[in-house]
Amino acid sequence: MKYQAINKQQGIGLIEVLITILVIAIGLLGLAGMQAQSMKSTYQSGQRSQAIWMAQELAERMRANPSAVSNQHYLNAINTVRAEISANPGSDKPCSTPSKACDATNTCNDEQLARYDAWDLFCADASTTPLPRVNPYLVCTPTSCADGSDIHITLEWEEAQTSFQRTTKTTGSGSDNPTVELIIRLEG
Q: pLDDT per position in the chain (188 positions), as tens?
């Protein structure tokens, strides 16, 4: 019996090359997606760290000025700052400058110091503020802010949106923005 020689394939066929390119392209797209998600998570983590720092800084300033807390000067100052930030979105200077700069060269009363602390933390220069568009909230339980009451410091901020995240998400509270809450108790 005579066998005919079959032409042996030499090299790679075009179909195999196309399949290889397709598999590599899908893999590279997956890597790009993971990199984008990693960058987003890193940015969000940095924002959360800054929010925690800002809440702790406000708590320390309140501990240093307990009479302004019990007289609700911090509560009023934070409410004023939040209203000014909401009224001037996107502005580099969303808040009015306090009448007196309470630094080492100026002496201030409790109310002036509370106003300056709120302005310094959340408004001093919005272009360099670690959390742009931050909304501070301060709630005392009970509402009198007396010695021994719990003080809830809550910071809410808007995350920067990427070009593919243009949809708005809301929850039952009306907002899906990230928040940090710190609860402190000042003992007199």
A: 566 656 666 667 888 889 999 999 999 999 999 999 999 899 888 889 989 999 999 999 999 999 999 999 999 999 998 898 888 877 767 788 888 888 778 888 999 999 999 998 888 766 666 676 788 999 988 877 878 889 999 999 887 654 444 444 443 345 688 889 999 988 76
Q: Is 5 exposed, middle or buried (0-12, 13-18, 19+ CB in 10 A)?
A: exposed
Residue at token pair 């934070």? 78
Q: Has residue 115 been placed in a domain?
A: yes
pTM of the predicted model over 0.85 = no
- What's the chain's Rg over C-alpha atoms? 28
Q: Does a structural domain hold residue 168?
A: no
Total number of domains constituting the chain: 1
C-beta separation of 153 from 136 below 8 A:
yes
